[in-house]
Write a structure and sequence with these properties.
Blueprint: E1 7-10, H1 24-37, E2 41-44, H2 56-70, E3 75-79, H3 85-98, E4 102-105, H4 115-126, E5 133-136, H5 139-142, H6 148-155, E6 160-165, H7 173-180, E7 189-192, H8 195-203, E8 208-211, H9 218-229, H10 233-253, H11 255-265, H12 282-299
Parallel strand pairs: 1-2, 1-8, 2-3, 3-4, 4-5, 5-6, 6-7, 7-8
Helix pairs in contact: 1-2, 2-3, 3-4, 8-9, 8-10, 9-10, 10-11, 10-12, 11-12
Length: 302
């Protein structure tokens, strides 16, 4: 099951109107682009996929639409995070029934969770379906940090087979992987999000790149990932250099604002981000357009 969590996992936006109703036609078109590019998996209803802004019914509609496009050709992973454990369990069951192949779960909370509370939350959701589940470790958003001890306990729960890690503050990917791997099961996949560091994380031995930009620009993202998977550090860094303007914007404004602006420039029928998130200004959009041109120049080269 861990193989479902390896390679390039592309995370697209979820087009929706002001009332939070998913535009399944526009969403299906995004999924078709990812399928045609040949990404290893598609991760829907993640942070950029605005899962926390959508109702249970709309989340299910999104999964059904994606599954209808992919028809089993790509692994389809769906986010099922929710404040309440029973709601997350219901979302996991919905995802399985709607055609998802895997689940992604973050420890979403209002009251900060203890390590023990998080353990029981994940155990309940993992046990609710037959699907493999990836832990979404996103402390910047959730304000929850997994201890190594908690990760080890979770790794021995049936169906929990992977973790989506944030980039380490010191960028010591090799050191973090060397610390974690001996403590986890042999088939447990360790991947990273934070697009600007994932090529280096892959070079260091990471299993997966959980990518926002791949949800929008799958072809150049795949070039970067394949170079890193091949261990070609020189080619990886050459390709990554073209992405640096985008990475800088991600860090400055947050990836969700940047990709919404980028989608409108390309143009793709995405609409605006859910309120209260505001679109970027005209001057900021100009910077996004320039960053996209740098990546487009990369695509034009062999």
């Amino acid at each position: 099951m861990a193989t479902r969590f390896k390679g390039l996992s592309a995370f697209p936006m979820t087009p929706a109107d002001e009332a939070g109703q998913v535009d399944t036609q526009a969403f299906s078109a995004l999924i078709e682009r990812l399928d045609a590019a040949g990404v290893d998996s598609v991760g829907i209803l993640g942070s950029t996929g605005i899962y926390m802004y959508l109702s249970r019914a709309e989340r299910r509609r999104a999964i059904e639409a994606a599954a209808a496009v992919l028809k089993g050709r790509r692994i389809l992973m769906a986010g099922v995070g929710a404040l309440r454990t029973d709601d997350a369990v219901a979302l996991a069951k919905d995802a399985e029934a709607a055609g998802a192949d895997a689940l992604l779960l973050a420890p979403v909370s209002y009251t900060p969770l203890t390590q023990e509370e998080a353990y029981h939350h994940f155990a309940a959701v993992a046990g609710a379906t037959g699907l493999p589940l990836a832990i979404y470790n996103n402390p910047t958003t959730t304000r929850f940090s997994f201890s190594d001890d908690l990760l080890v306990r979770l790794a021995y729960i049936p169906n929990i087979r992977a973790i989506k890690m944030p980039l380490p503050a010191d960028s010591d990917y090799a050191g973090e992987l060397a610390r974690l791997r001996p403590k986890l099961t042999d088939d447990f996949a360790i991947g990273y999000s934070g697009d600007w560091g994932c090529a280096e994380a892959t070079l260091a031995g990471g299993d997966t790149w959980y990518s926002v930009i791949a949800g929008l620009l799958p072809v150049p993202a795949l070039r970067l990932m394949r170079a890193a998977q091949a261990g070609d550090a020189e080619e990886t860094r050459r390709i990554d250099a073209a992405f640096q303007p985008l990475w800088a914007l991600f860090k400055e404004f947050g990836s969700i604002r940047v990709v919404y602006a980028a989608a409108s420039i390309l143009p793709l029928a995405i609409g605006e981000p859910p309120r209260p998130i505001l679109p970027l200004t005209s001057a900021e959009r100009q910077r996004v357009e320039e960053a996209l041109a740098a990546v487009a120049a990369l695509e034009a080269t062999p």
